[in-house]
Amino acid sequence: MKNLIWLIPILPLAGFIINGIGNKALSRGVSGWLASLTVLGSFILSALAFNSLADSNAVISVDGYQWFSAGNFNLEFGFLIDHLSIVMLLVITGVGFLIHVYSIGYMSHEPDYARYFAYLNLFVFFMLLLVMGSSYVVMFVGWEGVGLCSYLLIGFWFKNQEYNAAARKAFIMNRIGDLGFLLGMFLILVNFGSLQYDTVFEAAKNMPSGAPVLTAIALLLFVGATGKSAQIPLYTWLPDAMAGPTPVSALIHAATMVTAGIYMIIRSNVLYVMAPFASQIVAVIGAVTAIFAALIAIKQNDIKKVLAYSTVSQLGYMFVALGVGAFSTALFHVVTHAFFKALLFLCAGSVIHGMGGEQDIRKMGGLKKSLPVTHFTFLIGTLAISGVPPFAGFFSKDEILAQTWIHNPLLFTVLAVTSVLTAVYMFRLYFVTFYGDFRGTHHQQENLHESPSSMTIPLMVLAVLATVGGFIGLPELFHGPHLLSEFLAPVTAYADAYISGSASHAFEMNMIIISIVVLALIIAFTRSYYVKRNNIPETDSQTEGFSLLLSNKFYVDEIYRAVVTRPMDVLSRFGYNWIEKGFIDRIVNSMGLLTNGTSGMLRLTQSGNIGFYLFAMVLGIVVLIALKLVI
Amino acid sequence: MELSGLNNYLLLASVLFVIGVMGVLFRRNAIIVFACIELMLNAVNLLLVAFSSAHNDPGGQVMVFFIMAVAAAEVAVGLAILVMAYRNIKSVDISMLNNLKW
Amino acid sequence: MSQIAFYTLSVLSVFSALMVVFSKRAVHSILYLIFCFFTIAGHYILLNAQFLAAVHVIVYAGAIMVLFLFVIMLLNLNNEKESHKSNILKFAAVVSAGLMLIILVAAFGSADELKLISAPEGQIGMVQMLGQTLYSKYLLPFEVSALLFLAAMVGATMIGKKETH
């Protein structure tokens, strides 16, 4: 098995190269299926690796070659497949494969077919590199690579300037986070002399808990995570990133890439356990982001925007779990979230596909009959994300809530409210889209169609996963084994020893009952509000008061523009007008003018008059001999 | 019989050479300019022969042969050019030959 | 005796050289130049280079100068009026030439005083001696100069021939 590990990332890379070079030469069917099959190959290999890992319980580590060395610093390019990365590998390749297959149908009208699949394969390659690396540097390579692919795919339709702007925004926001990550890496290198996970963590364990340098490292790494995983204050790129094709939103901006920050913190769990203050910050930021994004989502009318804010909110949940030290719980939510959020996005894509590109839910409605498969799978996704038992979201979310309750009741309250809000906006989305009367144009109604089977089959598979995915982590109450946390125990052992405790059975029981009751109420309420009374979200001009604030996303973009972009603009304009134009340009221009002027004068000596040349020659000889004499 | 010293020859050759230079600068008739160039070549020849005698080395005199050969070739080609120029501008005045730019 | 001969020849050659520059007519200039070449041939004899003196007279006075005269006659340039040259330019020409003379003399002033070898001892000017050097040590340049002549011949013919349209 060990010998085949390198094939896991190489397969998608090969797909990228073939699709990238054979861009126009490959037929559509070949490029789509080639890309999908490479990811399937990686999935099968990952499954084999999982098997061997589950059997022998031995971590697979592949020592790569020495990448470079400087002084006494050596960098190995190696792979590490442990219990954490194998879970990520399975999610990435599994969900990735389904989304590749889905893309074959979704992108069928797209002229630039091969380029799309090349990017998608490249993304999978970098994502695999990110989770497989045995050191922070390899992780960083993947980290930057997925950022690049995200940029390329958001701006996939690069003829649209707004999409390009969204792509740039995503890239720049990520850069800010990456700076934090880089600084964190430098601090690690300076303090521990290595960037290999095992060396760093062994050294960190010997340091006193709460050492300032550990806190600094943990906070800097967290800055990187806020960029990649869209947390306050760097979350604004994710909603804009919906400019990309919908399968991309599903794969990159919901299921995999945005969870890279979570993965990084789980990987560094030792550091965070040793830095309680940093962990508290993580939890608080996560909780604030969760409720903030959930509030915004309630008043969004773009089907993808709602899901995007919901992603931000769910990522906030995961960060709270990380902050309270429940690392395996966070990963549990990553997995279930990948299932149901990819499902929801793909359903949204199917709806958009059927509606001929329409994304505004106010122009939809009554799609239940025309898109039966999409409707049913979307319902499952909605139930899962809202936390209705026994769907996947219920188990992971309840576990996060329970863990938070033990550590901090205040955060628990915030998350509980968020949970309610989540159900509200998801069922609002569901009822407005699929019930009521059709509100689109006549033309759209005629062309309304269910998506082809290459799109619906992945939907069904993901729906099944979103339904049963939660059973890998049953709460203690049911006396079943918590498969995931047992599996992850080797990775989080150190953290588990430090942060102990689980909620009482009575509390869990109460939680389940309360959540079922509350959810039932919410469903009944939203149904009566949006279906029975046929309320549809008002147009933008009618919105006022608090909902205006919400539909404008708390004016965060505007605030950023005023606080960051404007001063930067002013500064750049000053630099351009005064420093660049007035100083540097003037020096450069005067150089040119000087050359022009002197050569203009020298040109006069080039009169073409032989007599003058002869004079010059004689005088030149005189001067040369005189010089020879003097020197 | 005593020959005069090398210094005298140096002075004489210098004077002849400078007269040639002056002629080149002074006159505009291309033929005279040519003649002055010949004069300069001869000044150099004279010096070469003087040094050759002083050092008792036949190399200097052999060099004079070569200079004569080159001068003969140069005069042949130069005068051909001159005839050509005269045919085109009906003059051998070098101030008329002022197209030597660009 | 040779001192007197040297000074006489020197004065004659400088005078004729000056006349080359200052004669009004081109034919006079060329004739003065021929005379100047004869005086230089006299210097060669004084320097014990008899063969060279003979060659000098034959090649320069006999061949090259005749070429000059032919050109003057063929183009009928004798009465060619020179365009007036401003006095400032003439002055500049004399000044720069004088400057060059000063510099040259100053440069040669640092040369060592060398005794010239008297006639009976110096055999290097003899035909035998020169011939041996020319055909042994300087054989290659000698052959190459043949190539030069060929090129000059072809060039002169090409340039001088009337253009046929």
Explained architecture:
The complex is a heterotrimer of chains A (631), B (102) and C (165). Chain A is built from 25 helices and 4 strands. Chain A is mainly alpha-helical. In chain A, strand 2 and strand 3 form a beta hairpin. The model of chain A has no long low-confidence stretch (mean pLDDT 87). Chain C has 165 residues and is mainly alpha-helical. The mean pLDDT of chain C is 83. Chains in contact: A-B, A-C, B-C. At the B-C interface, helix 1, helix 2 and helix 3 of B face helix 1, helix 2, helix 3, helix 4 and helix 5 of C.
Number of strands of chain C: 0
Oligomeric category:
heterotrimer
Count of helical regions of chain C: 6
Strand content of chain B: under 5%
Radius of gyration of chain C: 20 Å
Number of strands of chain B: 0
In terms of per-residue confidence, which ranges of chain C show pLDDT below 50 for 5 or more consecutive residues? Answer: none
Shape of chain C: globular
Order of secondary-structure elements of chain B: HHH
Q: What is the mean predicted local confidence, pLDDT of chain C? A: 83
How would you sum up the global shape of chain B? elongated
Low-confidence stretches of chain B: none
Distance between the termini of chain B: 58 Å
Estimated helix fraction of chain C: over 70%
| Number of helical stretches of at least 4 residues of chain B | 3
What string, H for helix and E for strand, traces the elements of chain C in order?
Answer: HHHHHH
Q: What's the main sheet of chain C like?
A: none
Helical coverage of chain B, percent range: over 70%
The chain-level structural class of chain B is mainly alpha
Rg measurement of chain B, Å: 17 Å
Give the end-to-end Cα distance of chain C, rounded to a whole number of Å: 64 Å
Condensed summary:
The complex is a heterotrimer of chains A (631), B (102) and C (165). In chain A, a hairpin with a 2-residue loop joins strand 2 and strand 3.
Helix and strand arrangement:
The complex is a heterotrimer of chains A (631), B (102) and C (165).
Chain A: H1 7-21, H2 28-56, E1 60-62, E2 66-70, E3 73-76, E4 79-81, H3 83-106, H4 113-132, H5 136-154, H6 161-192, H7 197-205, H8 212-228, H9 237-240, H10 246-255, H11 260-267, H12 269-273, H13 276-298, H14 303-323, H15 327-354, H16 372-386, H17 392-407, H18 409-434, H19 442-447, H20 453-468, H21 483-498, H22 505-532, H23 545-551, H24 556-605, H25 610-630
Antiparallel strand pairs in A: 1-4, 2-3
Chain B: H1 6-26, H2 30-55, H3 59-89
Helix pairs in contact in B: 1-2, 2-3
Chain C: H1 2-22, H2 26-46, H3 50-75, H4 87-109, H5 127-136, H6 139-160
Helix pairs in contact in C: 1-2, 2-3
